[in-house]
Amino acid sequence: MVTLDDVARLAGVSSATVSRTLSRPQMVAASTREAVRSAAERLGYQHNASARALATGRTMLIGFSVPSLASSYFPPLIAGAQNRAEAAGYDLVVADSRSDPQREASQLARLRGRVDAVLLAGTRLADPHLAELADAIPVVTFNRVVPDVPSVAIDTAPAFAELGRRLREGGHLRVAYVGGPAGSAADGARLSSLTAGFGQAVEVFGPVEPTFGAGVEVADLLAPTGVTAAVAYNGLLALGLMHGLGTRGRRIPEDFTVAAGDDLIGSAQALSSLMTVLQPVEEAGRDMVDIVLAQLDSTAPESAATPRRTLTARADMSRDPEREDPS
Amino acid sequence: MVTLDDVARLAGVSSATVSRTLSRPQMVAASTREAVRSAAERLGYQHNASARALATGRTMLIGFSVPSLASSYFPPLIAGAQNRAEAAGYDLVVADSRSDPQREASQLARLRGRVDAVLLAGTRLADPHLAELADAIPVVTFNRVVPDVPSVAIDTAPAFAELGRRLREGGHLRVAYVGGPAGSAADGARLSSLTAGFGQAVEVFGPVEPTFGAGVEVADLLAPTGVTAAVAYNGLLALGLMHGLGTRGRRIPEDFTVAAGDDLIGSAQALSSLMTVLQPVEEAGRDMVDIVLAQLDSTAPESAATPRRTLTARADMSRDPEREDPS
DNA sequence: TTGTAGGCGTTATCAC
DNA sequence: GTGATAACGCCTACAA
């Protein structure tokens, strides 16, 4: 391994000068700067992150805990975060808890001593534990509000309400909601916004797993009921619904209106026949990083100096499907 | 921050003893072990990863570079790797190159000084650069073979060949292949295996983006041609095909047979009407980590001592759809 | 079994 | 503008 000292020796300067040249070039004479740089180049010098971290107290690492990497929801969130983190010189350490609170806790314990900040999505941590973690290290949560912990949320309420309104205006009298995974907080919120917008009770199917297959199954239950529109928790479910309804002879959107709660598999752009709630997931990931960076870079005496930020992004509706009148 | 010394002072021993207690407990008397442990507990001691890394030369970090986190293909690969890495005490640093060779190169340069090993999927790195990287740090590639660099691959050839054979046996005379992204090596291989299995030329549509929407569009091109079966590069495309064909009045699988090149969105379990190539992606991720771990943990004088391993997993066919005779 | 002491590669605080 | 030098927190011979 090539060290600062090796470069220093070759360049005929001290290691302190090399260090300065590499981190704050303007503090160094132009001539020596060049000498040092070419020496570093020749030796193929790579700085040692651990040593730097030990000396500065900064690992330049941000941890991101998610309940699943298999779901299509979290990868874009991670992508957004990674993108922004990289721009700021940070790298992202991902931990997939596979929805196991036990595992999540131990992953976070490990992360604490390893990273400068932690991003939490879909956490199962109890409020007090979360607050405790946030006390030890900067934390930002996603779609989860805990006192004194900054968070980023995507507010789907307006979009689901609008969805309800449009269905009502489209003349639909009976509308179904196909719910997401059991125990999902987002699920309940979406349903109540939809109901509020629709102006009357919505018929609920589920909870079910938010998969294509589940959508196909639910279609069989739905078809005979007389509802003329269905709002699915997410895009895969909606696609499954469409498929299932299609095999039962219903044409979308002529005979039946389908809407999706997210656009993660690109269903929105693809299908003018599908109404879709657009969630700015990647942007949310970026925002999460922005918030921790603000906390991290704050030179102020920390504590109350840096106001804990909380951001809420707004989900929007895609354009109408070509026809959305009920049959 | 609580350090070893703090714990040592409270426990009335030296920091060396604390260090030993925490890393190799059996080297320490039971009584002192307990004393140290309770002291560490009381203080809430968390070891500092940077300091440990500097002292041991091990960061306990593995880098994983992927071209995209948005695609549904790589997250499961990462999940498998993360899972295995965690079990071995390692954490995973992810880098999304967004298919930009430039960005990938700079990410890898950063990673080099930060992690103990690098996993590469869908890399755009030229062979020589890749070899150079592998020379500096343990590297494992996915679906990419470079001399002297260990790799993991999923061999889809047998499955696609079998697919071709089954279609032939099912009586299909004209079969379509809907190709994946332009320039994909996997794409060409799949087509030729399919063709070989089918025993005669397959009609190619594409290349197209492997999305649901693209599948819908291709369905319009496909429907009038007289082919009775279509094999899609991946699951989303296949779903799009089914949808598009469905809206044009074709029933699957009664009127038309559709097959998918992967099962990443759970299409296989969901749809008995869809033939699906099952790819052990998560297992591949695990294998990649296993290989680097073997290289890392090898106490032998490295170089030729640890044989560079290469694994090839085999993709398999899902069960037949309920009916696969052509109409 | 335990303590002492040196070193891991960088940064940062001083003088010069 | 540059060079010693002391941390940073931990690990690990080596000695006791």
TrEMBL record, chains A, B:
Residues 2-56 form the HTH lacI-type domain. PROSITE patterns: HTH_LACI_2. SUPFAM superfamilies: lambda repressor-like DNA-binding domains, Periplasmic binding protein-like I. Residues 300-327 are annotated as: Disordered. Gene3D superfamilies: 3.40.50.2300, lambda repressor-like DNA-binding domains. InterPro entries: HTH_LacI, Lambda_DNA-bd_dom_sf, Peripla_BP/Lac1_sug-bd_dom, Peripla_BP_I. It comes from the Bacteria. Residues 316-327 have a biased composition (Basic and acidic residues). The lineage of its organism: Bacteria, Bacillati, Actinomycetota, Actinomycetes, Micrococcales. This is LacI family DNA-binding transcriptional regulator. Residues 304-315 have a biased composition (Low complexity). GO terms for molecular function: DNA binding. Keywords: DNA-binding, Transcription, Transcription regulation.
